[in-house]
Amino acid sequence: MGTVDCEIKNYIATITFTNPPKGFFTADMVEQLGCILDELADNPEARVVVFTGGLPDVFIRHFSVEEIISWIPGMKERRAEGQPDPKFARTPLRMVWEKIDNYRKPTIAAINGYCGGGGCELALACDIRLAGAGDYTIGQMEILVGILPGAGGTTRLARLVGVGKALEWVLRGRTFYPEEAATEGLVHHYIKGPVLPAALEIASEFVDKPASALSAIKQVLRSSWGHTTADGVDEEGDLFGNIISNDPRALEMMEEYVASGHKMKKF
């Protein structure tokens, strides 16, 4: 079972994701993360939050495709019974990413390995993204298994790099090596050495700054867009739910990916 662990040291909370052997994120880990974020929110000993991966060369590979496939029969059954479709955008996963996006304390993604799908969505919700050196990729590659991002990947990516780039990347399932990601603006900085020490160094800059001012800066910048992130992610999440419950090809591609041993081509 995957674990989400938290350590607080020098007023910095480091949250680590570990799910051997491949580092997929799961619904259980979503619940663990949500509880940790709630506990940290009012903890004066935690003034900054850093996220990183606990496996070698893995931040969060992506959300478990096996779990997504397991949701489909229940969704089809509800539809066959004439029940209204669930508001898929309001899934626990989306709401935890939303919690990070709107967190009052600074957040930093210390990307130390594969960061795709839901992992990239988490990183996009953070205030600062650092990518360490390594032979791994970062990006929203959901189309390669027949689906689209379902918890903020389209909207947050477009706001970060612009609609034009986001369209190409998400339509093609493009992913980037760490240095490429920094050049393209997907992450703020490429770190040639280990990424966690670099993230902790940046985090230390916030420790002695007024929490109220940091929170206010985040609030005013996050709300500066004309269309709210929540509105964009609502639309995205509903489209995601509709596709996985109705498109046979999407299910086929996800099952092919799982059967291949989770091999994904880089674009």
Quick overview of this protein structure:
By secondary structure, the chain is of the alpha/beta class.
Keywords summarizing the entry:
single chain, 267 residues, alpha/beta, 2-enoyl-CoA Hydratase, Chain A, domain 1, six-stranded mixed sheet, three-stranded parallel sheet, globular
3D architecture notes:
With 267 residues, this protein is of the alpha/beta class. The protein has a single domain, classed as Alpha-Beta Complex (2-enoyl-CoA Hydratase, Chain A, domain 1). Helix content is 49%, strand content 15%. It contains 11 helices and 9 strands. The protein has helices spanning 27-41, 65-80, 92-101, 118-125, 153-161, 163-172, 178-184, 195-207, 211-222, 229-246, 248-259, and strands at 3-9, 12-18, 48-53, 58-60, 107-111, 114-116, 128-132, 138-139, 189-191. Strands 1-2-3-5-7-9 form a 6-stranded mixed sheet, sandwiched between helices. A 3-stranded parallel sheet has the order 4-6-8, covered by helices on one side. The model has no long low-confidence stretch (mean pLDDT 90).
